[in-house]
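Q: Make up one entry.
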Amino acid sequence: MAAPGKVLAQPPRIKVLEALGSIADGRVKLIDADRASVESSMGERAYTVYVNTEKGVAFSDDNGTKFRGYVGYPIIAVLMLKGVLPFDERLAKALAGIPWKELNERYKRYAIVEELVKREAEKRGVLPKELDSFVKQVIDRLSQIQLRYTPAPET
């Protein structure tokens, strides 16, 4: 489990794509300036997200953030909607409806899932190099933001 105050690590590349897909699917609901709810790709969970870049803190109860200590896709999606991270609606639409959890559980390797997702996006008119370029932009911007894990949303 992520330790309170620990700086969250950079996410796996695929989490940027997953964040785009979650926005395209309408699964990200901003509650206020710092809080959001993000529904999982299969609809069985709703993640609680708190992000305050001024304070440099973030919380999400998704597995990547809470148990692996990296910036999970729900936090990335919220930062995109808040304008902190880049967002591209065309790329997001090409990633709509992807069953992320199902793919991740079936293939157990993000590299394999990323290739499958890129092939699907290409069928929808988005080239893999466009996704790669966008992921790099987001990761570069995210590397400039230091977020510390907070154990629960602050009040």
The CA atoms of residues 39 and 45 lie 6 Å apart. The longest helix spans residues 128-142.
